[in-house]
Batch of 2 targets.
Target 1
Amino acid sequence: MNKTIFAVAASLLACAAWAETVVTIDAAKPGAVINKNVYGQFAEHLGTGIYEGMWVGPDSPIPNTKGWRNDVVDALKELHVPLVRWPGGCFADEYHWREGIGPRKDRPVKVNTMWGGVEEPNSVGTHEFFDLVELLGADAYVNGNLGTGSNQEMAEWLEYMTSNTKSGLAELRRKNGRDKPFKVAYFAVGNEAWGCGGNMTPAHYTNLYKTATTFLKAPHDNRPKFIASGGNDHDLTWTSTLSKEVKGNIDGISFHYYTIPTGKWEVKGAATGFGEGEWISTVKNTLAIDKMIANNVKVLDQNDPQKKIGFMVDEWGTWYDVEKGTNSGFLYQQNSLRDAVVAALNFNIFHNYAERVRMTNIAQMVNVLQAMILTDKDKMLKTPTYHAYHMYVPFQDATTLPVAIKDNASYKLGNTAVPQVSASAARGKDGKVYLALVNTNPNKETEVTVNVAGGKAGAVQGSVLTADAMDAHNTFAQPEAVKPVPFTAQAKGGKLSVKLPAKSVVVVNVE
Ligand code: AHR
């Protein structure tokens, strides 16, 4: 090796040894508020997501309130769940609300043709759903049936829920036990109109949306925000057509994107027992949503410069091959540390688009896809995703603060490379500065220097979620194998260094 090459190699090695990520929070430049509904949830009549997982009925030996299991409701309350979307999903376009009101014993049993072909007892209907959201202290997001329903059916459902008059529908609601109107925060017209909602074109759906919303009426003090069914993945035509063509009566356009480890619907990849190849592809496929949101926001900024229309990611999360031995129509999957990392990466991205992304709903709340909670008869466990949501509670309604990341190394495997560190900061409603950090590298801890421009970072304290294995998860035998533990760091010599463990999520309050 000649002298020059040696000198270059030595200096590269030295750089590698010092290399550390520098995260600078600009506390003096507050940005948009992170709508608490970015932390919304989704509960569909699918598998054991509602029946068994949450609803056991008032006569169950499992302790419950108005039929909803107490253990699950108590755990969800700790997440400060702001919003629940119901009854679907694809199920919404086959749901007829009149079959879910009145005495439960008289309600028709149907077939859930969307999910597993099982019996749908209609035991959970409008009143039961509002019992749930009221127990949780959450807002309601009701998804109307455009596919097999009608404008009249949707309009009458909205009147039934919101009218304070003596109309026949309001009186029917009273007869069914609810005097005061329900509060509907959001009402969607159909779901995935490009697929299970009717295989429509954007232009056809846009016309149907305009007609439907003409007849969706509610008292001015109880008017929901109206959500149009939008696109998915890289398709921009839905956002573009809807935002160009619909004038008024549109508060948001929905968007769906699922993280599939292999990127292929036929063989998606397993929830546990995967190799590092599927770890990094999961991270990469998760981060892909950033560009999708950016592109949609660009279209919205052109067509809706006044920013009246929100971009609502009302379905997102991991979608794996179902667990062996379970009904393939039930979408039941384990949930590991990898899912917590996916959730945190998504949160950090959503925060960056807080101005437009005003609501998201992870799919789904219990026992379905990337769930918060798994249940087995009277047992329940909190998943790593649950813990990620819990750690991020201070970001609900917080004000974003710009974060600059310098010298962010890549985590690489084969031909795939992703940024090692993801970061997001906000000033919480309590006035404190919160910083969320993710280390995507499953093999290496990394050192992050934290600076607060216009302030001083003397110490950080909060919690960290990590584990030895990439697929570490909780089981009914070991429900607390993966859970957050306290995390602190102090400034030394005027420098605040935070050691992020390999494959970890950290949320701290910067003092
Ligand atoms: O979340 C499961 C399903 O995924 C929803 O019903 C549907 O909207 C989407 O395709």
Target 2
Amino acid sequence: MPITPTSKIWMDGELVDWEKATVHVLTHSLHYGTGVFEGIRAYPVAGGTAVFRLREHIARLFGSAHLLDIRIPFSESTIFDAVKETVAASGLQECYIRPIAYLGYGEMGLNPLPCEVRVAIAVWPWGAYLGDDAARSGVRLKVSSWARLDPRTLPTAAKATGMYINSSLAKVEAVRAGYDEAIMTTTDGYLAEGTGENLFLVSGGSIVTPPSSAVGALAGITSNAVTTIARDLGYEVKEALLRRSDVYLADEAFLTGTAAEVVPIASVDDRQVGTGQPGPVTIAIQETYHAAVRGEVDRYKDWIERVS
Ligand code: PMP
């Protein structure tokens, strides 16, 4: 999906014009994938705009930086405020937000410690990541031949730029084969996650998701919200190691992520999941999530951060 420019990008402490938010071609992170980033969304709420779970996203950004030994030269509260400032400057009621901390121009080589750390925050309008149809009718998935990164090779809890080569390879393989999205497994064959989404199965009325730390999946903030929502709706939610057959045989399955939101899975490897249509549990969770991000559910009011 092409990016629609907005007026300003926050860069290293100030808002600069969109076209001027550029970096040098010898930027360290461009060569070695040594950046950390976030994907956040802002939604329209009564009387304005609110960022969904901003505090958790900023905490994860700083956690990712810590895992890579990147020292962000701003406090969490500065970046928190900068996100709100950038959203406000865009004038958008609804947008995607991309903060990134990366190693800049000036040093090269695999020791990143001498590099200057730079931070940028961009926002732009971005519709449903897997398409509006996907949210309504479900996506067709393929189990990838690319295994998810093993936690012994990289800190998989980090949302780091270079790690997305793994997701990108799986995504391209799936799209070229005519599917919407890929599911990656661990090197031992346990289901891990989508290329940018966590995975949930519904079987016999209870909900199961793979344990992120064991399978090298990102600990999703949407997945956390969906777990709370599902429990509040009265469903049991547990973590368990899952095999490929578990998703083939599930009554329902869905993906969760900030960009994708809650997306039903219609089929995996051409095997229909359940009826092949979004199931009642998925729909109930999807509807509540949709309302929660828009500040329409009182018990989840703490999840929304108003932009003045
Ligand atoms: N897994 C991966 C690999 C991701 O990139 C994302 C998106 N950040 C997710 C899961 C879902 O995370 P979240 O719900 O926090 O967006």
